[in-house]
Amino acid sequence: MPVAISTHGLPETAARLSVELERRLRGLASKLAPSSADLERHTRRIVTEAGFTPPQRRELAAMAPHAVAAVLRQGAPAAAEHVEYHARRLAKLNAAHPLVLQTVALCHHAAVTARVFDAATLWALEQLHLATILAINAGFHQVREREAQAWMDLARVELEATGLQDLLTRSAEVLRVAHRADWAEARLLTPAERRRLAKPLCRTGPGGTLWSVPLRAPTGVWGAIQLGFGREYPWLPRERELLEAAAHGCQRGAERLGLLRDLAERETRIRTLAAQLNQAEERERSRLSRELHDEAGQSLLCVRLQLELLERTAPVRDETWFPKLGETRGQVERTIDEIRRLIAALSPAVLERFGLAAGIRQLGQRLEQQTGARVTLRLEGARPVPESAAIMIYRMVQECCQNISKHSAATKVRISLTSTDSEIRVEVADNGRGFHPDQASRQADSFGLIGLRQRVELLGGRLSIASGRGTAVKIRLPLPEPPEGKVEHGKDPNPVG
Q1: For residue 232, what is the DSSP state?
Q2: Are 439 and 400 in contact (CB under 8 A)?
Q3: What pLDDT band is residue 478 in, cutting at 50, 70 and 90?
Q4: Which residue in 383, 341, 380, 381 sits closest to 362, CA to CA?
Q5: Distance of alpha carbon 64 from its chain centroid, rounded?
Q6: How does DSSP classify residue 321?
Q7: Which residues on neighbouring strands pair with residue 135, listed in sequence order?
Q8: CA distances from 479 to 151, 424, 458, 483 (A)
């Protein structure tokens, strides 16, 4: 028959056991006191043979069983904090964690074999050793966790900083939290300070302790990271290493910011130059269209009128030359139509007079006339487009229509132009022959795609081309606020409506 085991009273039992354990642990100091001199001698020999440095030996000696037992008279929490404190210092002194545990185990063995103890004392020594190991692990973990967090925060600051002052301020705050300093700052140095703070410095005075590491570029020292403590606190090796690594990170971040600033300035210059080139191109287009209209166009019109006059006034209509006169007039009329088409392509009057929407509609109509394809338009918008952007968008759609006319053999074409308060979206899709955009972009004579990408990049937009069974060109452009009284060509307040 199963026996029912009651768990009632377990907390009270555990509490009584804890009280008994703490009582026995407190009594260890008196039990180990007669052997304290021998234990100290054994501890010095063990830590020396293990190869620890003098500062590391002092920390290990403070975690020997007889030293911890002496602290136990103040209570178990005080003893645990005592071991964790010295374990943290060992971690910052670059002591090897496994070797520390091995050395503490040897010290525990020396304490157990120092003299003959009763079973209760041996049990208490085993519990003390277990608690010491746990406290050492906790101390090492605290240091490693704090360092890892500081490394991640410094890396984030280095990548996210928007300027030199932001980089320095945020890096100093990360180090202040990591080292629990009273204050921290990273700043530029005067010429006199650069000579004085050219090397890492840890200085202690009546007001506390100052840590300082230089920020050094290939040309020399330009700044420093400094931490202040209101108490005596000389740095330990890992603390100095973290501080110096942060200084290197600040230097990398400063170089990155300088490179980004140079890159941004170059991009601005390139954009400005590209905009000026586009403006020059539009001016040249306008000049050519005017000359074609005023010179060649007018001359051809005069020729056509003269031919028409000859046809009407010829006294004898000879069957040999009269039909050729009509053919010549027809050729002149076709040339006039071609010149008008060139004039419209070079400088579209509809764009200047009626706006972007009318210009896009005209492009769709011409594409239908040239290819016989069915063109569907979707033109929607929320506010006017700036004049410079309207011209660029018109040229983009014009380039897409020319590509369809030359290469696609499409029967259906969809042109979509929509805008919101912040961006404008352009899409030209067809069901014709596809192509490989990457291969086409690498071809030496692929000026259309190259020009399209350059126009999109000039306006800070994004271009995507999907081609397979048909082709879809999608363009997204940020839409800046138009200057006061300066909108797109034409009077239509809705750019795409």
Answers
A1: -
A2: no
A3: confident
A4: 341
A5: 50
A6: T
A7: none
A8: 40, 6, 13, 12
CA neighbor of 448 nearest in space, from 387, 397, 378: 397
What 8-state DSSP symbol labels residue 208?
Answer: E
Six token digits for residue 305: 């009128």
Q: How far apart are the first and last CA of the chain?
A: 89
Task: Evaluate whether 80 touches 131 at the Cβ level (below 8 Å).
Answer: yes
| pTM of model > 0.85 | no
Q: Which helix (H) or strand (E) holds 183?
A: strand 183-188
Q: How far apart are CA 271 and CA 269, in angstroms?
A: 5
CA pseudo-torsion sign 458, 461, 467, 472: negative
Six token digits for residue 198 = 């050219």
pLDDT digits (tens, 9 = 90+) for 322-335: 777 778 888 888 88
Element (H, E) at 442: helix 437-442
**Tokens at 296, concatenated:** 């060649």
H helices present in 292-427, as ranges: 298-313, 322-346, 349-354, 356-371, 387-403
Classify residue 354 by burial, with Cβ atoms within 10 Å: 0-12, 13-18, 19+: middle
Q: What are the start-end ranges of the H helices in 404-436?
A: none
Residues 6+ away with beta carbon under 8 Å from 85: 139
Q: How confident is the model over 12-50, as pLDDT tens digits?
A: 433 444 666 667 777 777 777 777 888 888 889 999 999
Task: Give residues with Cβ within 8 angstroms of 242, minimum separation 6.
Answer: 147, 150, 151, 175, 178, 179
Mean pLDDT value across the chain: 81
